[in-house]
Amino acid sequence: MKKIEAGLALFDYANELICGVDEAGRGPLAGPVFAAAVILDPAKIIVGLRDSKKLTAARRDMLAIRIKADALAWSIAQCSEAEIDTLNILQASMLAMRRAIEGLHIQPTLALIDGNRCPVIAIRTEAIIEGDDKVPAISAASILAKTGRDAALMVLHQQYPQYAFDQHKGYPTALHMERLRAHGVSPVHRRTYAPVRALLGLE
């Protein structure tokens, strides 16, 4: 595994089949953590790719459709709340990334991972700090992971409307905390996260 620090020039990846990889949903108190892997088609340039957090929801949704249509390969994976509580969020994120890479129907030779850690996997990996705003394939993965998770939280909202998952997507906002205190901990809340542990009387 090689780390590329922010501000340094990226290596020349000639003759490599690259997939970009990113995750979404480490911080929320509820719902799964998602990851995506994308192999872009160099013959089909997708304009506007960048860190999903810097895009509007509407723009993310539009780009997600384009990525799925034009990429050589893409895959979205997740780790459940139970897996997060068992493994811890870091290891669950790494597992979701590995599942995303392994889910690609084309085998890449190199996975470029957003952040400073890489999942353990058979192919070569490199971690790139702020890669989701530097490497188009990672930006694309960031968008698919985010839109995939947001869609999953809308489904959870239908199952548990009292928590307003459609508004905060599981993040510890004032509204979410208010609903948690009013309705208690649901089956999709992460029990090892401090605010949830406190409500369960485990702190």
Structure description:
The chain is of the alpha/beta class and 203 residues long. It has one domain (15-160): Ribonuclease H-like superfamily/Ribonuclease H (Nucleotidyltransferase, domain 5, 2-Layer Sandwich), CATH 3.30.420.10. The protein is built from seven helices and six strands, in the order E-E-E-H-E-H-H-E-E-H-H-H-H. It has helices at residues 57-70, 81-87, 89-102, 136-159, 165-168, 174-183, 194-199, and strands spanning 2-4, 18-24, 33-39, 73-79, 110-114, 124-128. The chain has a six-stranded mixed beta sheet with strand order 1-6-5-2-3-4, sandwiched between helices. The longest helix has 24 residues, at 136-159. The protein is globular. Mean pLDDT is 93; it is low at 1-10.
Show the helix and strand layout.
Elements: E1 2-4, E2 18-24, E3 33-39, H1 57-70, E4 73-79, H2 81-87, H3 89-102, E5 110-114, E6 124-128, H4 136-159, H5 165-168, H6 174-183, H7 194-199
Parallel strand pairs: 1-6, 2-5, 5-6
Antiparallel strand pairs: 2-3, 3-4
